């Protein structure tokens, strides 16, 4: 599978998981839920998706 699809799907999955967890923890306002979900999933993807990010960047530089 193309690394861009894997990375994008992983980012979307992390966003949905973060939103679900934050909702279960009591964050019910849609605006703040969205903002917090983006922040949490961004931090989580920085830590958890380094392998996918490296694969994507090597694929991009290889095609140049």
Automatic annotation (TrEMBL):
Keywords: Membrane, Transmembrane, Transmembrane helix. It comes from the Bacteria. The chain crosses the membrane at residues 5-25, 31-49. It holds the Pfam family DUF4229. This is DUF4229 domain-containing protein. It comes from Planomonospora corallina.
